[in-house]
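Regression check, S-adenosylmethionine case 227:
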Amino acid sequence: MAVNNQKKSQIISRQRVAERGEVFTAEREVNAMLDLVANECLRPDSRFLEPACGNGNFLTAILKRKLSELRRKYKNSPYDYEKQAIVAIGSLYGVDIMRDNVDECRERLFSIWNEEYTAHCKSEASEEARQAAKFIISRNIINGNALTLMCVDSEGNDTSAPIVFSEWSFICGNQIQRSDYTMYELLQKKEIRERTLFAQRDEKNEEGGTFLRRYITHYKKVQDYGE
Ligand SMILES: C[S@@+](CC[C@H](N)C(=O)[O-])C[C@H]1O[C@@H](n2cnc3c(N)ncnc32)[C@H](O)[C@@H]1O
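Current build output:
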């Protein structure tokens, strides 16, 4: 599907502004803010979570920065580029309560990823890797309520399913590990870390936590395991 990554109006309708506070951030402001954390935007594994991501103005801009750095770094190695491009897309997380925003955010991310990937890996680009990237995006960009931490239905009402994020990490060679955590648990862990730091205790003791599921697969086969 062709995706429009061109500049769009910051406001779609008065009703959406009134009901959901929807005003998209302009490209200039997005880039000015990202410049404040410019180095983090270059590291493929540096994680970003936008709890009200809209149609993805921040996440797409971060992805572009990460991929352009990878292109520079892995100019002559499509294999390394492909793996790191998977890491980069796996590092971006978003939640939005409006289903159409989530759909658009996912489509924009995939379109940018696929365009860059295809241009760089050329004949070595594979459909499997594209499907893996698409699957990762579908897990990372969630239609949910960032206040209640629950997934929502098409009307934006809470369901009984909690928001669950997948952590993607290469563990050895081409094996990638997906570990699923509820957003609630991740936020709790953050609080624990902050309290631990304050109390000057050993942070490592508090790490680990529990997780819901774990899958280990070849990075091009993540879409074959779990939903
Ligand atoms: C001001 S817009 C910002 C969008 C995007 N972050 C940007 O800067 O372009 C706010 C967004 O928050 C979403 N939103 C409102 N309430 C929310 C909630 N409780 N949970 C998740 N998203 C929410 C809206 O649908 C809208 O897309």
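Comparison notes: Residues 200-209 have pLDDT under 50 and may be disordered. Residues 195 and 201 are 9 Å apart (CA to CA). No diff flagged against the previous build.
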